[in-house]
């Protein structure tokens, strides 16, 4: 599944908590660095050229969220979309084109 691959690639968030302490979620340091780097580059390109990702990124930044956590969410969104296309054995359909 895409969640297992996200864990392998180092983009899956893991909770940092113990007892009553709740820290920020972190990503695994034991990741495939090449895949994580490629996903980061893809996410940066998606932020630049995809209007959906750009509006999502700017909305999260304006809410006060960190840039890296938002970038990580976009990396996971791209992974989920790629796995959906492969599992369905179909081309990617941009749903914003067909929205009313």
From TrEMBL:
UniProt GO molecular function: DNA binding; transposase activity
Domain Transposase IS116/IS110/IS902 C-terminal: 2-57
Record-level GO BP terms: DNA transposition
Signal peptide: none
Protein name: Transposase IS116/IS110/IS902 family protein
Pfam families, sorted: Transposase_20
Region of interest called Disordered, as start-end residue ranges on this chain: 1-26
